Amino acid sequence: MSYVLQSGYLVAAVLLILGLRGMSSPRTAHRGLVWVGVGMVLAVLVTFIHTGTGNIGLMLLALVLGGVLSAVYGRQVPMTAMPQGVALFNGMGGGAAGAIAAVELVGGSATGGAPLVLGVLGALIGTVSLTGSGVAFAKLQGWMRRPLRFAGMPLVNGLLAVFALGLGIALMAGVQTDPVLAAYFGVAMALGVLLTMPIGGADMPVVISLYNAATGLAVAFEGYLLSNPAMIIAGTVVGAAGTLLTLLMARAMHRTVFQVVGAGFRSPEADAAATQEGGMLKGIEPVDAGIQLGYARKVIIVPGYGMAVAQAQHKVWELVQRLEERGVEVKFAIHPVAGRMPGHMNVLLAEAGVPYDLVADLETINPEFAQADVALVIGANDVVNPSARNMPDSPIYGMPILNVDEAANAIVIKRGSGQGFSGVENPLFTADNTRILFRDALEGASDLVQALKQA
């Protein structure tokens, strides 16, 4: 029976690996998802056989609750809310790893050796991921608009890290009393909150990826504690893939992972730079904006989260077609994290039928802004903020941006005068050559199409 169980776990792990590989390409993503699903079902069946019928009722209840809730959430969540969905499920994975460790430590099942060390480490990583992902979810959901810091935060974080290390060593030494366990998990929860609170919204994609890697690592460690091969392999694969993605995303943002996680160590001047008052916004009517666009030789469109929320990609593509009929050269400029998720804008534009040769990435399009007559920004903010290039005290300094400010003129479609997701003022919006079309993305694009028809 043991050979059959181990073989089942091995097949499930292989299916998970093949599924993750399939999800690396849009053409094979659906097949990859199916393989991952089959692998998970097989792993659950093997776990049922391995565990026996002792906790069959609780296991079935957990499966039904988890399955129903995730199915309802998955069907209802819009694509624009996927980042916070990922954060939510990351947190649940980390919390599950922490809960497994808590049960094993409280029950005295973890008695020593490498499994105990890995179990204690997994408990810390999983619990930090639980509360840190919760804060990330609140930021992405708009419940926490600004980075939160307080005087002495670096010292507090340092002390908490030292406490966590000391308590972890005590647990590994066999001091598994209730007060020590409670303090260990309490410190880990506080660390997750305090490490994530001061991180700005522009860095949230990197943070989510980092917690995804942490959750995978925690699951793998708890797999050692339970001697469960499926958890070890799946957690290791997720942890490795998440780590690579985190490093690539941080590199694309011109930052190190430590610079992102260490946001609480920034100077107070950074907050002042983030909240300083800007100049006056200058509005423009659709007719005037349509004339500017219609008589331009070259227009670069910068889509962002606002276009995704308004589902304006089809109307934007119609606007591009009207411009091309008038002989205007049009290109799309895509920031690596536009829409808060890598590839988000590319998917939306492809869905609307925009040819790939009209879409350019940041490195390709940036030199062309200086030759553009008009840069049309649709629902984007932080990714076109020149503070990231010009203001060393800005919280987003160093982040690569699209050089919209180098275009001869800029038209920005935005609903109001609010700041971007990072909470940083954007001097582009008050520049002399920038005009604001106060509309949501769909209404703004529709008005511009009508204005071009009448021009």
From TrEMBL:
Signal peptide: none
Membrane topology designation: Multi-pass membrane protein
Domain NADP transhydrogenase beta-like, first and last residues per copy: 7-450
Domain of life of the native organism: Bacteria
Subcellular location: Cell inner membrane
Family membership: Belongs to the PNT beta subunit family.
Role according to the record: The transhydrogenation between NADH and NADP is coupled to respiration and ATP hydrolysis and functions as a proton pump across the membrane.
Database matches in PANTHER family: NAD(P) TRANSHYDROGENASE SUBUNIT BETA
Name used for this protein in its record: NAD(P) transhydrogenase subunit beta
